[in-house]
Amino acid sequence: MLDILSYLPAKKKQTPSGWLSFNAVCCQHNGSTKDIRGRGGLKATDQSWSYHCFNCGYTASFILGRSVMFKARRLLTWMGVPEVEIEMLNLESLRHKNIHGILSERQQVWNTISDIQFNEFDELPPFAELVTPELQFQWDYLRSRRVPEDFPVLTAAQNDGVNWVRPQVIIPFTYNNVMVGWTARMLDGRSPKFISHSQPGYVFGTDLQHADWQHVIVTEGIFDALSIGGLAVMHNTISDAQARLIRSLGKEITVVPDQDPAGVALIDRALELSWAVSIPDWPDGCKDVNDAVIQLGQLGALLTIMQSRETSRIKIELRKKALVKRLQH
Ligand SMILES: [Zn+2]
């Protein structure tokens, strides 16, 4: 794979946190004066790299398995990487995308028909880097929420950033493996808990779906979706655009609401859409899919969801009533 380090200026320094600093290559292309104070920074692992310029503010990043995006392409060009090498990197990267991405091709046909499009968005907070086991706090948090280890999660290094001083993990929003937004989950217990860049009609988790899966599970939250391999609508309702996107996957849909008052609204919306709903009898303390995966394991949670799947409107109404009653106690 393209060795980005071999394209860096000869004169560079390494910080204790693993960042290489050197004269930035971006500034003169962005209307700023050329950097002579070593204000460009790059951190690379064998699966990703992230670039940040403290002179003109330019950022770019790359994650193996995702497309090489516009800002990363520009940066590589400025570094002197030939166009053909960039194209090779892109092809190689997409070959590495996990099996889940095989869906892409069929998906693109659907998208053209249903006019589903999101703009590429690859602005990340300064010094965003891939969470690896060395970043123990973030790594442990992700494992405790049962996020699959091969799902790329980022974090903005707190010691280097000025604005991103709160500990957080950043979940990239992708669609057909192109980054179209992200959400940062703050880990300090203060609010706001999430800071997000999203686009109308976006549904998280389409890139988690396997081509050979018949079913798709629709949940409310990012961690619900990540832990079960489902989708997240990120609200307690489903917009028309989101519904179109979910239908475009061509799978059997099951909505699993949070078992709280807000979740009841999601059940009503699922009824409107005539989608199946599952309200499993989970152990005490489980109020959403992520809780269930933590307590029962992914397979266990999946079984409870499929066992309680209801397609009949009457049965869903009865289940909903039982839930409402349970919530009042
Ligand atoms: Zn710059």
Q: What report would you give on this structure?
A:
- The chain contains 9 helices and 15 strands.
- It is an alpha+beta fold and 329 residues long.
- It has a 5-stranded antiparallel beta sheet with strand order 1-2-3-4-5.
- α5 (222-228) packs across α8 (289-307) and α7 runs antiparallel to α9 (313-328).
- The longest helix is centred in the C-terminal third of the chain and has 19 residues, at 289-307.
- Zinc ion is lined by residues 24, 26-27, 35, 53, 55-56, 58.
- Zinc ion (ZN) binds at residues 24, 26-27, 35, 53, 55-56, 58.
Whole-Å distance between the termini? 58 Å
Number of helices: 9
Give the spatial strand order of the biggest sheet: 1-2-3-4-5
β-strand number? 15
Shape: elongated
Helix-strand category: alpha+beta
Keywords for this entry:
single chain, 329 residues, alpha+beta, five-stranded antiparallel β-sheet, five-stranded mixed β-sheet, elongated, binds zinc ion
What's this, in brief?
By secondary structure, the protein is α+β, with helices and mostly antiparallel strands. It contains nine helices and 15 strands.
